[in-house]
Amino acid sequence: MRIKLACAALVLFSGPAFAQSGEITAWSWNIAASSLKATVAGFNKQFPDIKVTVEDLGNQQTFDKMLAGCAAGGVGLPDIISVENHESEIFWSQFPDCFVDLKTLGYTDEIAAKFPDFKRTELEVEGKAYAMPWDSGPVAMFFRRDFYEKAGIDPASIKTWDDFIAAGKKIQEANPGVSMTQADINGDTEFFRMISNEQGCGYFASDGQSITVNQPACVAALEVVKKLKDNGLLIAGTWDEKIQANTGGKVATQMYGGWYEGTIRSTSPDLAGKWGVYMMPGVTADGPRAANLGGSSLAISASSKNKEAAWAYVNYTLGTNEGQVTMLKEFGLVPSLLGALDDDYVKAEQPFWNGQKVWVDILSTLPKIKPSRGTPFFQDANAIMVATQLKYLNGEYPDAKAALDDVANQVAGATGLPVAE
């Protein structure tokens, strides 16, 4: 049987007939949960007799309860669950029977092809699709136009990290008390992961079977982080401290996934017109300048009593421009759906950003982003990297290669995977 949803982006698929009524529940967190709630009205125009309840459990509690529910054979799980991409393989590897293969409900190759490869890499295992791509985090440089202008810096001239460093020195000199950028170098690896992904490197190989964190491209990424810090341009900042610096006019640039647009817009409304966006710099002038940080997916639990209704909601929310762009408009969640690039809202000038078409600029990098595997061991590897990165930045290793060799050996000991040659 073939079914057609009459939405902004028509999606054709085959599969079992949808349940036309009933109740389904979804677990998510923070803005992601709010975004799901925002799509319910549009979904109910197509399926008025399906009641959708979205529960905001918080990020960590969603993860913990999902882990506990899968360990208990699916007991207590909702119909739909939000899963962060880089943590997803923890679940697929330990509990492959906890989630529905979406291909059995209508997730066809045609639908899958509407998403970039880097979003699907961790969600599809051995011919099964355990989750559908949701938001993505194409990396962008969010910058204060006035601080750059005061220093005579055109962001279009910043093509490499060396350019960024040279510009940062001028910007800090022209704007006393302003730091060029921030990163949570005491508790996270965000800059390293963004720059290494840009360079096509990560903790693990693309097949997830070996450790690659000490490969030359990752070494180059870590060297950039230290160079930024050693030049006094990168200061430590937690999530909350970054927001305080944004609102207080103490930082010139924040590098983050595109979803940070909604954070700046919602937490610094009085600074409308003063912010802009440009592409992340590359290690070399002609090298890659695209990466991803963050992003989630939606999975359907095998214990769901209404799988067809759950699929109808997931496919509307994530598989149509209408669903994806609703979440973009309301909360700044960046679509993974490539068709959303053609939406009128995406193409429009954005008032907060001084009329810049920021979504054209941010989403145009999606096809250029290289896939990166989290594997079931992401948390182990990242914890090791956090500690080692801090030691390296404090001068406790002779160079980046020595630091990352240490990381690779520790990850090998923790996971049993070999270090790639």
Explained architecture:
- The protein has 421 residues and is of the alpha/beta class.
- It has a domain at 2-137 and 293-347: D-Maltodextrin-Binding Protein, domain 2 (3-Layer(aba) Sandwich), CATH 3.40.190.
- It is 42% helix and 16% strand.
- It is built from 17 helices and 13 strands.
- It has helices at 30-46, 59-71, 85-94, 109-112, 117-120, 145-150, 161-174, 190-198, 216-230, 239-248, 260-267, 307-319, 321-331, 344-347, 358-363, 378-393, 400-415; strands at residues 2-5, 11-14, 22-28, 50-56, 80-84, 124-125, 128-129, 132-144, 181-183, 234-236, 253-257, 275-278, 292-300.
- The strands form 4 sheets. Strands 3, 4, 5, 8, 11, 12 and 13 form a 7-stranded mixed β-sheet that branches. It has a two-stranded antiparallel ribbon with strand order 1-2.
- Strand 3, helix 1 and strand 4 (50-56) form a beta-alpha-beta unit.
- Helix 16 (378-393) runs antiparallel to helix 17.
- The longest helix has 17 residues, at 30-46.
- It is globular.
- It starts with a strand and ends in a 6-residue tail after the last helix.
- Residues 1-17 have low confidence and may be disordered.
What is the H-and-E element order?
EEEHEHEHHHEEEHHEHHEHEHEEHHHHHH
CATH topology of the domain at 2-137 and 293-347: D-Maltodextrin-Binding Protein, domain 2
CATH superfamily of the domain at 2-137 and 293-347: Periplasmic binding protein-like II
The total beta strand count reads 13
Low confidence ranges: 1-17
The dominant shape is: globular
Beta-strand portion reads 15-25%
Mean pLDDT: 92
